[in-house]
Amino acid sequence: MPVAIMMLAVVAASVLFHLFSPWHATAIASNWGFIDNTLGLTFAVTALGFVAVICFMAYCLFKFRHVEGRRADYEPENQKLEAWLAGITTLGVVALLAPGLVVWGQFIDVPKEATEVEAFGVQWNWSFRYPGADGKLGSSDVRYIDGTNPLGVSPADVKGQDDVIVTNGEMHLPVNKSVKMLLRSADVLHDFYIPQMRAKMDLVPGMVSYFWFTPTEIGEYEILCAAYCGIGHPQMRGKLVVESEADYQKWLEAQQTFGQMRKSQLSNERQALN
Ligand SMILES: [Cu+2]
Questions:
Q1: How much distance in Å is there from the Cα of 110 to the middle of ligand 1?
Q2: Burial letters for 153-162: b for 16+ Cβ neighbours within 10 Å, e otherwise?
Q3: Which of 57, 173, 189 is nearest to 181 (CA)?
Q4: Which of 22, 83, 93, 114 qualifies as a FRET site for 122, CA 20 to 30 Å off?
């Protein structure tokens, strides 16, 4: 009996903690409300399962407690009960998995109007690359990385010369414009994560992964690395600034292109040698 009461107390405390704890998700600032709804549905289904199973166990402990002279029945098969249990479990699993498939489909189905921005991860910081006036990113490869080319943009590709390179870890985006994030890593697995955007994706060395989102609220957000990537992992942070189109253009114009960066760094090196 005391165990049954303790189990009911655990159920009540768990549900109350979930409802009234001060730790909730940060306010959403992107188009991905569907992801929040799917998480909510997952919480609801798993909470129902948890409450039902623990309450049933507590009930059985009470109902079938030891009574002098009472013997248990032997009932190895109960097809009706098994059909019910299999049916309810199937419904629960479908409710858990089906919305995720739909959300995933949307997550990688990039709208045509989305502009491309590249996030580049290296132990342990973030850099960014924006397409220049031609609207296209130049090709890239980690083989090209050197002191004047931290992102490994192909020096021979004309499309890359006007690419805007940002190495201070600060990414800017205009509000209400869809963006396709292209993710590249120089070394190990990283994971590009902005909690308020409800979006994250692994950076895998040797390939370009991607997802898209539309920032919907002007503000500053922290960019985190959500894959343990070595001793400096907790310091691998960046900043996303979501701003008006005018502010964004002003910021973009103040950044340097790949061509400009190469030229100024090469001339600095030459001066140092002379
Ligand atoms: Cu990392």
A1: 25
A2: bbeebebbbb
A3: 173
A4: 114
**Cβ(188)–Cβ(205) under 8 Å?**
yes
Instruction: Give the integer Cα–Cα distance in Å for 58 and 235.
Output: 47
CA–centroid distance, residue 88 to ligand 1 (Å) = 41
Mean pLDDT of 218-231: 94
Q: Which tens digits make up the pLDDT trace of 10-53?
A: 999 999 999 899 888 889 999 999 888 988 888 888 999 999 99
Q: How far is the CA of 127 from the centre of ligand 1 (A)?
A: 12
Rounded CA-CA distance 206/185 in Å is 7
| Total residues belonging to the chain | 274
Collect all residues with Cβ–Cβ distance below 8 Å to 178 and sequence separation of at least 6: 31, 110, 111, 113, 114, 115, 212, 213, 214
Q: Tell me how far the alpha carbon of residue 121 lies from the centroid of ligand 1, in angstroms.
A: 7
pLDDT at 266 over 80: no
Q: What is the mean pLDDT of residues 165-187?
A: 93
